[in-house]
Amino acid sequence: MAADNDIVPGLTPVFDAAIERGAPVTVGRLAIGGQRVHVPVTGGKFSGEGVFGKIVGGSETLFDRGNGASVVEAVYYIENAAGAVARAMGTGYRTDTGDFVGIRMSMLFEADADGPLSHLAESAFVAEQVKGANLMTIWRIV
Amino acid sequence: MRLELALEMRLSLGPRMHIPVSEQYTRGAVLVEGGTFSGPGISGTIVPGSGGDFPLVYSDGNGRFESQYLLKTDDGAFILKRSTGVRQAPPEAVAKLLAREPVDPSSYYMRMTPRFEAPAGPYEWLNRTIFVGVGQRNPEGSLFRFWKVV
Question: What is the pTM of this model?
Answer without folding.
Answer: 0.93
